[in-house]
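Tutorial handout. Part one gives the primary structure; part two gives the three-dimensional structure as tokens.
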Amino acid sequence: MSSPLDPAVANRLKRTPDGLVCAVAQQRGTGEVLMVAWMDDEALHRTLTTRRATYYSRSRQQLWVKGETSGHTQHVHEVRLDCDGDTLLLVVDQVGAACHTGDRTCFDATVLLPEA
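Part two.
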């Protein structure tokens, strides 16, 4: 089955063996890193066309739109592809918690090396 993702974009992606690309969500304006998730071609296509962050759940093996059930949405302002083609950066406006634990970001809980 062919993907609706623009072939020029699809050809630049370096996917994991299961067809996924890492996606980092960052708060627009502050640069705060909110979360890391995964996208397949369909999730990226939907994100690019709707501006609603859509990811691929590895545990459920299905697409999910951020905030569809929680109300904690991400409006996507910009999507960038890194130089290697294996990571996407989504610049978003986060409404509510980004983390499934209810924290603002997925990086609030554990600091391994505090700022000096």
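Part three, for discussion. The helical segments are 7-10, 41-50. The beta strands are 21-27, 33-39, 54-57, 62-65, 74-81, 87-94.
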